[in-house]
Amino acid sequence: MCGFAGLYQAHKSMDRNQLAGQLQAAGNAILHRGPDDEGFWIDAHGHIGLAFRRLAIQDLSNAGHQPMESYCGRFVIAFNGEIYNHLELRRSLEIENPDCKAWRGHSDTETLIMAIHQWGLDETLAQLDGMYSFALWDNKTQKLTLARDPFGEKPLYYATFGNSVAFSSEIKALPPLGVPNDNIDDRALASYLRHRYIPAPKTIWQHIRKLRAGEYIQWSAETGSNPRHHQYWNGEKEAVSAYSAPFEGTREDAKVLLGEKLENLAARRLIADTPLGCFLSGGIDSSLVTALAAKASEQPVGSYTIRFDNPRYNEADHAQKVAAHLGTNHHEVHGSAQEAAKLVPELAKIWDEPFADPSQVPTLLLCRKTRQHVTVALSGDGGDEFFLGYSRYAAVKAGWHSRNPKRLPSRFFPWKKLDKLAGLLRNKPSVKARRSYTKMLRDATNKLPAFNHHHNSFWRHGLPLNREYLQDGMEIDDIWPLSPETVGILPTANSLMVADSLCYLPEDLMVKVDRASMSTSLETRTPFLNRELAKLCWSMPQSWNEGEDGRLKTLLRDILYDHVPAELVDRPKQGFDPPIREWLRCDLRQWANEQVEEMPTALKDRLDMTEIGQCFEDHQRGANLEGDLWPILMLSAWGQENLSMFEQ
Fold first, then answer.
1. What domains can be seen in the chain, in order of their start residue?
2. Which of 58, 346, 370, 590 is the most exposed place for a label (fewest CB within 10 A)?
3. Beta-bridge partner residues of 267
4. DSSP code of residue 223
5. Given this model, what pLDDT does residue 101 score?
6. Quick one: 260 exposed, middle or buried, by C-beta within 10 A (0-12, 13-18, 19+)?
7. Is 518 within 8 Å of 32 (Cβ atoms)?
8. How far apart are CA 115 and CA 103, in angstroms?
């Protein structure tokens, strides 16, 4: 696990001393991602330089040092992440090529670069089980490759300017590499206000982009500043393929196969030369991951949870009972309003582009507590997306059969209010843009993307953007990743789950977990995020995940019951959101008021501050508008901290 950065210029040799200084500064900007070691590499011709910060997890010796050169000298890699099946890949490499037995050490980085040397990039990527982003330089072809894992667990940003390409694990490392002053991307801002995150490939900056999950891009002298993009893992196609070749067997067969698969995936994620633990909420996903880790580990594993004072949000008592049954070394962190008030001012430094999933607060608190004891923590992210975990999945199945979206429960999609909504929208600036949103909601041919968009949106009555910054189509952004053809093939619930796994999961959940954990030098690992497991889940009838009593994820529950008694985990689903609603009316009220008043000019000019001020006042009077308000507050905090980062 690490962070890395680099600078590439195909047609001109860079000054080595200047480049070395830039790489040092970029590495320092992401020191938190790898406090254990640093490394730098510049090619002989001065066309590319790499900076590396290491959090040592596997092979703590110098044999795991990066940037790492292949034994033949052709390739150089800076690698962030973990390859969980690298020992299996080593054995395959050794069988095919006896020279591979002369390993320097036992790091997965060395396995990865040897695999690329022997099998090529595409074949290697096809065989990896892991989370990763990496920069690969080919001395022979003078080609730079940047790659990101299939579920976007690890980030990778890049910017092209002049004849140069700068890239890094976080945006904050780009300015030292010479990336010039940039402007806000107004469409990205609209996406953020609507969904609380910015989907790839956009970022808040016009000229900075991030790789999509499952993508690699390449630059060479031939491509110039326009890279070649390649989607090496296409989740949409894989989902259609899996559904078209359904699972052959009974539900019991599926349960046994999934149980064995998950045991294997959890055991793989325990490989480390440092202490490990598990996040444990007491829910289905985290309880199963903890149970599987406890079964596979020779030593008692640590488990970590957060306790809120408000019982509406608190899961700590449930987690405590599961931990006692599994015999874990259990720890709690107190998620009080006072602790949150201390933490919130730091969020804009940690998430260096706007991000406003409120669960970032307890996630960060939990990561800091966990890091006091272990260096690696397993989490249950991905269980909902693959096992019918969200109630809207079941709701859409119930209401879609007649092709009449009005059968959907109003709490999921208030169709009856759309006429009123349309009237409100028409009274806003940019009538054409506002009407396009209403048309999308009313258009029966687009009803599933509309449902997804509406259910996952904030500021539904219209974005609080000033007239001159509203553009046609801004109300309808690109969070729906599936084609109409795919929606026509997959059942409705399957479409929603696949869409979430390709957008919401990598661009919200994984961004939240990566920044929170890496800010405190903690590595998180997720057994559910595996390509083979995803395809297996997509090939099964989703009715297997529905119980007669209305419970969801029943297939996963049945696997869990083999490890934890049902009475300890059978309860209504509870999210990980903190009591932001109450906090903004008490302990965080002064901070929130300051964000509204101190909104940076570049943002204030774009926003309808009158409407935002009214939103803040209405929330204080009792209206529950935290969903609209929190993105605004985090945007202001981000602007105060980061808008000046590219000033040269």
1. 2-233 (3.60.20.10), 391-494 (no CATH), 580-642 (no CATH)
2. 590
3. none
4. T
5. 66
6. exposed
7. yes
8. 12
**Helix, strand or coil for residue 336?**
coil
Instruction: List the end-to-end C-alpha distance of the chain, in Å, as a whole number.
Output: 30
Question: CA-to-CA distance for 497 and 240, rounded, in angstroms?
Answer: 12
Q: Are the C-beta atoms of 174 and 208 separated by less than 8 Å? A: yes
- Residues 643 and 181: their CA atoms lie apart, in Å, by 10
Q: Decide the pairing of beta strands 208-210 and 157-161.
A: antiparallel
Structure tokens at 280: 């444990």
Strands ordered across the beta sheet of 208-210? 37-42, 48-54, 2-9, 164-168, 157-161, 208-210
Tell me the helix, strand and coil percentages in the chain, rounded to 5: 45, 15, 40
As a whole number of angstroms, the distance between CA 325 and CA 333 comes to: 20
Q: Residues in the chain, how many?
A: 648
Do residues 208 and 172 lie in contact, with contact meaning Cβ atoms separated by under 8 Å? no
Which residues of the chain fall short of a pLDDT of 50?
401-434, 437, 444, 648
Unique residue bearing structure tokens 């980030």: 155
In angstroms, the Cα distances linking 381 to 133, 151, 528, 530 are: 19, 11, 7, 11
Q: Where are the alpha helices (DSSP H) in 344-382?
A: 347-350, 360-371
Cross-strand bridge partners of residue 49: 7, 42
Q: Is 248 exposed, middle or buried (0-12, 13-18, 19+ CB in 10 A)?
A: exposed
What residues does 68 pair with on adjacent strands? Answer: 77
Per-residue confidence (pLDDT) for residue 1, from 0 to 100 = 58
CA distance 402 to 397: 10
- Helices 391-399 and 447-455, axial angle in degrees (round to 10): 150
Classify 124 in phi/psi space as left (phi over 0), alpha (psi -120 to 50) or beta. Answer: alpha
Q: Which two structure tokens, joined as six digits, stand for 7?
A: 């600078």
What is the pLDDT at residue 472? 65
Distance CA 426, CA 438 (A): 10
Question: CB neighbours of 111 closer than 8 A, spacing ≥ 6?
Answer: 83, 86, 87, 89, 90, 93
With residue 534 as reference, give the H or E element that holds it.
Answer: helix 531-538
CA–CA gap between residue 201 and residue 159 (Å, rounded) = 12
- Under a CB-based contact definition with an 8 Å cutoff, are residues 424 and 414 in contact? no
Whether omega before 180 lies within 30 degrees of 0, making that bond cis, reads no
Alpha carbon separation from 227 to 48, 188, 431, 557 (Å, rounded): 16, 21, 38, 45
Query: Cα-flanking dihedrals φ and ψ of residue 179, to 5°?
Result: -60, 125
Concatenate the DSSP letters of all residues of 264-293 into one string.
Answer: HHHHHTT--SS-EEEE--SSHHHHHHHHHH
Give residue 75's identity as a one-letter amino acid code: F
Q: What is the β-pairing status of strands 130-138 and 75-83?
A: antiparallel
With b for 16 or more beta-carbon neighbours within 10 A and e for fewer, the 424-443 pattern comes to ebeebebeebbbbbbebbbe
Task: Identify whether the C-beta of residue 382 lies closer than 8 Å to the C-beta of residue 505.
Answer: yes
The pLDDT value recorded for residue 163 is 87
Tokens of 69: 């050169």
What the block records as the tokens of 425 is: 């929208």
Contact 286, 323 (CB under 8 A): no
